[in-house]
Amino acid sequence: MEELKIEYISIDKLTPYDRNTKIHTEKQIEHIENSIAKFGFNDPLGIYGENNIVLEGNGRIEAAKRLKMSELPCVRLDYLSKDEMRAYVIVHNSLNLETGFDDMKLMRELRELQSAFDFGDYGIKLEQFDEKLTSLKKSFLKPYNKVHYLISLDVNLNDKVIELINALQRVEGVEVESSLN
Q: Which terminus of the chain has fewer CB atoms gathered within 10 Å of its CB, N or C?
């Protein structure tokens, strides 16, 4: 694999990949446009060949056109064979579909940032996570009246087990049930 170098190429010299299987809706392109306007164009396009075929970033090109950008950062992927190039487009676009978010961490981040930042401009609606969060809370925060400890010890340690049980029984509010097998 070659070292990637960023080139700035005129937007009118970039060719959308005609076999691109990724769908970009009008709404998504609007969200990409808002992201670029707010955070900058931070993700170079992956291009291939003499015609600068865009393997990754076709949605970003559309958003950049709306923002009247004239040049875009690109990295060449010419080291790929034609079959690898075609496969890469599919692999690249599907990798982020494999997993979701850590819902608890995501909710914390969104809640902490919601007063300073409008995520709706990027297609992120806090309400869509509320149901997930409620479900997570119900599954993790079930009320328990007792705390159970499972202690597995070697049978040859019978004296230590009895000593441990006696110590636990002396702790106020701790109920100890034991069965030595």
A: C
